[in-house]
Amino acid sequence: MTATTTAPAATTHRAPSSPVRPRRTFRPEVQALRALAVLLVVIYHIDPAVLPGGYIGVDVFFVISGFLITGHLWREASSTGRVSLAKFWAARARRILPASLVTTIGVIVIAFVLLPPSLVESWWKQALASVLYVENWALAAEAVDYQAATNEPTAFQHFWSLGVEEQFYLFWPLLVLLGLALWGGARRVVVRDPARLRRILLALFGAVLVASFVWGVQQSLADDPVAYYSTFTRVWELAVGGVLALLVQDTARFAPLRNTLAVFGAATIVAAACVLDDGTPFPGFAALAPTLGACAVIVAGRTSGPGSLRTVTESWGVQRLGDISYSLYLWHFPVIVFFGLYTGREPRFTDVMVILVASFAMAIASYTLVEQPVRTAGWFRANGRMLVTALVAMVVVTGLVLTLPLRVHGIVERWDANAREAAAEADETIPEGIERDFAPFVDGSTAISPNPMKAAEDKHPGVDACQAAQRATVTPRCEFGVTDDPAATVAVVGDSHAAMFTEPVTRVATERGWRVVTYLHSACPYSAGSRVGDSPEVDACNAANARTRAELRELAPDVVVTAYQESYSLARYGEEGPAAGLAEVWNELADLGAQVVVLRDTPHAREDVIECVTENYTDPAQCDQPREDALAGRRTVPAALEAAPRATSGDVLDLFCDETTCPAVIGNVLVYRDPNHVTRTYMDQVTDRVREILPEVR
Question: What topology is assigned to 414-693 in CATH?
Answer without folding.
Answer: Rossmann fold (3.40.50)
